[in-house]
Amino acid sequence: MDQSDAAGIQVLRLDTGRTVVSGAQSTVGVVGAGSIANSMHIPVLRAMQNVEIAWISDANAGRAAATADANRLKSIALDQIGKSIPIPDFVLLAIPLPARPAYFDKFQLGRSAIMAEKPFALDGAEHKRLLANFPVWRLACGYQRRFYATMICLRNIVRSGIFGELRGINVQEGGRLTRAGVQGYIDASTMDGGGLVKNLGCHSLDSILWITGASRYELTVRSIEWDGGTDRHASARFRLDDLESPFAESCDVTWRVSWLEQQSNLFRLNFENASLSCPIRPSESIDLSDGQGNKIGALSVSGTGAALTATQAFYLEWLNFIECAGQEKESLLSAASCLGVSELMDELLQR
């Protein structure tokens, strides 16, 4: 991994080709056989050399067995972990938030490094408690958008000052949700880890804080549309302070996510001398506009080695986590680095 200069902008470069995880064989245990484990984590882990999925487990034994059969893996009962089944080097927790504390406690005494699907915990207090119980290198949270080429480029532009002071950020994400193919987290109460903000909005909140490096924020306006105990639409304005940029100390954010209304699904940064925008999803370029909003060009982020697809982002998050854990070093997705997301969600979701 090194740094490369593209169009005068520092971007992250990762070696291309099939990457081999350095060192001895690493074993991974998968807790949770839901859609994200089946569609992303398991295929990615199976594609990595020197990585072996030791087992998969789920509260629904039939679902775990079906996933195991489809991927030539071993399925085990939850109560076997740490007893008849050895503790693996790494654990993926892809299960609902209320069920996670028992597994963090189970793996605390060993040396397993744990990758938890986003968000990391039910609330900021639980997030802090877990951080206090583990070395920083053993915990990560799956905010894989940090590996998108567009997000990395925006982060470096903020720090470079190439377009002047960062004045504001506008993010919109989501669309009208149909009931077809609805998963449990859609209807679960927000207090139990369901709802919009904790399952969709958390991603863009993390991107905002990660790109700017802001260490403080002040929530000024918020609006949540509730459906019983579940949030369906959220908007907010907040001010970020102590940015990691010599060219801006603070900036204003307008943020909107929805399962009720179609959104632009764009991430926009307004600078002193230009505006930059890109899709929420992975993309090969970032649009460049002048102060009047007229598009004047685009910045290509292809060829940087960072993720241009969601699958690549999942691959890179595991690669970084495994290699950093091997050195007992904090990863780019450390749970410590996303505490601010949990705390901001707490404020947004107050009733």
From TrEMBL:
The keyword Thylakoid does not apply. GO terms for molecular function: nucleotide binding; oxidoreductase activity. The keyword Oxidoreductase applies. Residues 28-132 form the Gfo/Idh/MocA-like oxidoreductase N-terminal domain. InterPro entries: Gfo/Idh/MocA-like_OxRdtase_N (IPR000683), Gfo/Idh/MocA_oxidoreduct (IPR051317), GFO_IDH_MocA-like_dom (IPR055170), NAD(P)-bd_dom_sf (IPR036291). Keywords: Oxidoreductase. Residues 154-263 form the GFO/IDH/MocA-like oxidoreductase domain. Belongs to the Gfo/Idh/MocA family. This is Uncharacterized protein. It comes from Mesorhizobium prunaredense.
